[in-house]
Structure formats: structure tokens, C-alpha cells
Amino acid sequence: METFLILTRETLEAALLVGILVTTLQRLGRKSDLPRVWWGAGTAASSCIALGFMANRLESFLSGSAKNILDISIFFLAALFLSYMVLWMTQNGASMKGRIQGKAMTALESGHKGVLFLLAFMGVFREGLETILFLWGIALQEGTGQNAWSPFLEGLGGVATGILLVIALFSGFSKIPLALFFRITSTLLILMAAGMISSGVGRLISMGVLSPIVFQVWDSSQILNDHTLLGTLMADFFGYRARPSLMTLLTVWGYLLFMFLWLRRLSHPRSTPQTNPQMDKSGVIR
């Protein structure tokens, strides 16, 4: 489920960028420049796949404390980038189309058509790097011994879903409520980041780096054991622990409170108060 959500969201964002560039060039009658966009997107996707294989091999060369440090770094980096992605899209998503079109127009007018390649490459490459980091964090949470085909099929389904959503949007066949989609997925991604923070804090406590403050605040394993299927899903998405420490609770709840308050602030910006114009006796506004 987590893999499907991540790949759908990241593919959608990358495909939106490419779609905006392609649509802009088509409307300008510059179809001859389309290969630069396709080459940029294709090169970025290929590079990210290669980096993904390299990242998968990297962990096999590490052991002991070095592996623990890498795992903990991945947990917190994935949570950091998830949080940044959600906040950035909330603040800039509405104006993204205009900015991308403006950069494409500037590149065409200046004759620097190589910028089209770079725009497509950097946009797709950024989403690809984030995907590698997120999936790495998910794999660390699930541990070894998992069925390799399940996340692979989820990933393919997520990529296909993201591409189909963008095709439907730009083809005009479906009025997709993207704002609602991003709100829902942003909430789920924040909860997923909380789960990664919980895992990272748990590793730090087990290594003796952090104090648990209170080792076990409660024991809800009789109601929902975090080793069951539902418990594992709750652990990955919400940072659920059947026997949580006080440090874990304070960290996760503090993060969730901070993120949702910030999202609320970005979603409902304060409007600057306007002063009422004053008129003189002749009716002229001063």
C-alpha cells in the first residue's frame, strides 16, 4: 500500500511537469522541440533506476554500527523529504503550471533549447531521487523476508495510475479533483513520515543514543499487536506501537502537531487587511 501511494504521487508530479512542457510546445507549434523533453525525462528515469540498484547493493556491504547509522539516516531523511514535498506542493502547487510554462517560453525565446532538456531532466530526476529514498525507508521498516513481488507490483500499479491520471487530465476526458487528491495523499504521506520517525527514534533508543524517558507508556498488544498485518500497516502509516516509549510518543505527536498546523497555515493564508479609502467633501478618494 505504501509503495503504491508513493509511486502514484511521485509519478503524478513528474508526469504533470512533463505534460505541462509537452502541452506548451504543442500549443506553440514547436513539436520539433518535443524530443528534448522526452530525452530529458527518459535520461532522468534511467539514471534513477541505476541509482536505485546501486542503493540496494550499498546496504549489503555494510554491517554493525555502520548499517544502523545508515538505516537511521534513511528514516529521518525520508521523513524530512516527505514533509518538505508535502509543504512545498501545498504552497506552490497552484502556481506550478505558470512557472514551468514561463521557463519553457524563456528558453524558446532565448534560443537556449537545451533548457527544455534540463527542465524535464531535473524535474523527473528530483522525483526519482525522492522515490528511491522513500522506498528505501519503507523497505527498512518492513525488514527482510518480505515477498519481493508485492512491492514490485504495487510500484508498477502506482506508476501506471499516476500516468493515467495525467493523461486523463490533459486529454480533458475527466475532471480530476487534483486539489482533493493532493490533500488526501498529503495527509497519508505525513502519517507515513511519522511512522518513519517512530522507527528512527526506536533505533536510537535501542542503541542508547536517546533515552526512552518511560520505557512503556501502555500495552495495547492484546487489542492490536503491531506484528499482525493490520498492526504492521498502522505502524508504517501512523507510527503505531503496541508498547510505545514516552520519547517515541512525544516525538511522533510533536511532529504531527507541527505538520498539520503548518499545513493549515499554508492552506488558509492570512489576508492582509485593507485600509478603507477616505473621501474628501468633493467625493474624490484620498
Report on this structure.
- The chain has 286 residues and is mainly α.
- 73% of the residues lie in helices and 0% in strands.
- It has one domain (2-267).
- It has helices spanning 2-27, 34-58, 64-92, 96-110, 114-142, 149-171, 178-206, 229-238, 246-267.
- Helix 1 (2-27) crosses helix 4.
- It is elongated.
- It starts with a helix and ends in a 19-residue tail after the last helix.
What's the SSE blueprint?
Blueprint (H helix, E strand, L loop, with lengths): L1 H26 L6 H25 L5 H29 L3 H15 L3 H29 L6 H23 L6 H29 L22 H10 L7 H22 L19
Helix content: over 70%
The stretches of 5 or more residues where confidence is low (pLDDT under 50) are 272-286
Number of H/I helices: 9
The 3D shape can be described as: elongated
**DSSP E strands, number:** 0
The domain tally reads 1
Q: What's the gyration radius in Å?
A: 23 Å
* Structure classification: mainly alpha
Overall residue-averaged pLDDT value: 79
Q: What can be said about this structure in brief?
A:
73% of the residues lie in helices and 0% in strands.
Label this structure with key terms.
about 290 residues; mainly alpha; 9 helices; elongated
